[in-house]
Give the backbone structure.
Amino acid sequence: MPRTPYAFLCLVALLAMPGCKIIKTADEGEAGAAAQAGEAGDEGRIAALLEKTYDSELLPLIAEKAQATGDLRSALAGGLEAAGPSFGNRGSGEGAAWNFAVKGEGKVVEANLTSRARKAVLDTDGDGKADLTLQLGPVIKGSSLRDVAPFYRFGDFRDQIEFAKLARALNDRASAALVVPEGELAGKSVSFTGTVDLKAATDPWLVTVVSLSVAP
Amino acid sequence: MNLNRRHVLGGMVAAVSGILPALSLAQGKGIIAIITPSHDNPFFKAEADGAAAKAKELGYEVMVLVHDDDANKQSELFDSAIAAGVKAIILDNAGADASVAAVQKAKDAGIPSFLIDREITATGVAVSQIVSNNYQGAQLGAEEFVKLMGEAGEFAELIGKESDTNAGIRSKGYHDVIDQYPDLKMVASQTANWSQTEAYTVMESMLQANPGIKGVISGNDTMAMGAWAALEAAGRTDVIVVGFDGSNDVRDSILKGGIKATVLQPAYAQAQMAVEQADKFLAGGSTGTEEKQLMDCVLINAENAAKLETFALSA
């Protein structure tokens, strides 16, 4: 089916634009994956897309756009519709969440490292109360890593399944790179960079972490 | 005026489609056809009602048709709509691949199509595809299911009608989350074809074969209702059931402490949005937005179930 390679080429062309870089349309491995049409080729295409974009586009984008927790909170105090366009990127479709890159440090108030979806709840503004939750994997909820990036667009994918596979692959990639120390986290200081998606300015923050360091 | 023609037209379409189309009169911006699966499922009725209400509000007449998930019938309905000279078609389609040709046929006749709920596998054929993010919705349902199950135990899955794309998408979304928990063991998985009565029977036999079942995740609400009835009959109301769609039936069950959760697709609002885009497109040649738009689903549980009414969540 010819539409798949076409979609892939569009994507490659699109990805080439923001950084004004010249990217080869496809090397042999990717051509092989792209040639497999439909769902059977998803894994290959998504893997190739991650290879091309995760380290060279997504992580730099997050690093560049990341707002300090306090700054993002101040911006959100003026409303999500004002903060969104200035600092974030909106997911596809009406009513989609605004996605922000965020960085900060704080004290762990509470942690659950026994769940498959490990979490640490932080106090980042020093008032002694929890104000955000870090997702530490291996199971990560949501698609904010995908949706924070304007270069991953739903329309460039075959369907919602392929688009969802990208989100999952990004989450897996991020959580696999995290080093979470053994033992009690509560009381320790951590610093992090990650992404958060908000549908309302007052939504609780559930941060997908791309880098984490825990003070000894 | 052309009242007679309308009646004749209505009769023709009814003869072709085998159902009675609802033609209503308005100020004459033309007709919008609204084609969905059977209204037996209240979800599709909510879609059709939402689209019809918005179309009338904007000054169109409506022609409401159902394709019963039959691509051939859908093709005939498109012929009828084209022959009737409709201005636009709002479609919840009868198959991601099979529907491309019908939508293309309308496009070739100069009639724009605006898709809701399900997507098709081609772009550039429909003007809009406002897609319910069933995958994301299924992930939400599965995350809640995993939490309720305490990340462990035996469970069963009820799958929808195989020919419906969303049956597969939801099942994949469920497994995307659940399969990351090695202590959750699927002991049975079977289709009940979206049917409440079939789900009842399937659940009965699943329970006999696997008395240790602790949870059931269902591809839609009607099957969840059937499963819950079987569980009640067997005295197994301890079993955790999670559905999908956000129907009033499941809402009521949640509020009574029966079924634990479901996932709402904003059917009514989505259909209205499609009509607004159609109106904008007919007036100015553009919807002002991208063709493919994803619409997120919302988790419904005891916390927010009371706010749910006819596939819409009040603020």
